[in-house]
Amino acid sequence: MKKGYELRYLILAALIAALEIVTVRILPLTYFMPTVPPNLMRVSLQPLWYALAGWLLGPGWALGAAMVGDVAGTMINATGNAVFYPGFTLIAAFNGLVFGFLLFRRAPSFLRAVIAVSASQMAVTWPLTAYFGTQAGWYPDFWLALWAALPWRAAIIAPFALLIYYAQKALHKPLGRYL
Q1: Which of 51, 73, 97, 173 holds its CA 20 to 30 A away from the CA of 86?
Q2: Is 103 within the bounds of a domain?
Q3: What's the pLDDT score for residue 2?
């Protein structure tokens, strides 16, 4: 990190955490999934914020922004369906790390975005959500929760990769001197 940029990174991390709270906790979309209790999957822009934090700030700051966004968002709990569980905060932290390691200070690339979203969804979010959800008692069976969520996790890779790629392209020029 360049000398004197700590305050800028802190402000940007707080801004990303705040955007995550608004889009994940206040304006989420949910859809019915009859095979896995509690029967709802949340659709939000959460991967976008983790990716932008990782791309702009690096793995450590992305980890922090993701954890702050998750904990503060759970405390705000605007949708009324969030309960704090440390396992889900770990998922947010690992996602911040994955995006940070794969995207930090790299030029926008659709292939890199696909790889980052694939790693985030298939190596972190998919198995750990099933595991921690089973441990918390929200899902009756780990394998049922794991395999029932697979089509959804695989289906969102391309749309989120496109969203991340175009967000990076749009922000690359104005924020280029900070990268």
Answers
A1: 51
A2: yes
A3: 63
Helix (H) or strand (E) holding 38: none
Which pTM was predicted?
0.88
User: Residue-wise over 28-55: b if at least 16 C-beta within 10 A, else e?
Assistant: beeeeeeebbeeebeeebbbbbbbbbbb
Instruction: Count structural domains, the chain.
Output: 1
Average pLDDT, the chain: 86
From CA 12, how far away is CA 61, in angstroms rounded? 9
Amino acid at 27: L
Establish if 1 belongs to a structural domain: no
What is the domain range of residue 33?
6-178
* pLDDT tens-digit series, residues 10-38: 999 999 999 998 888 777 765 555 555 55
Q: Do the beta carbons of residue 16 and residue 69 sit within 8 Å?
A: yes
Q: Does residue 111 sit within a domain?
A: yes
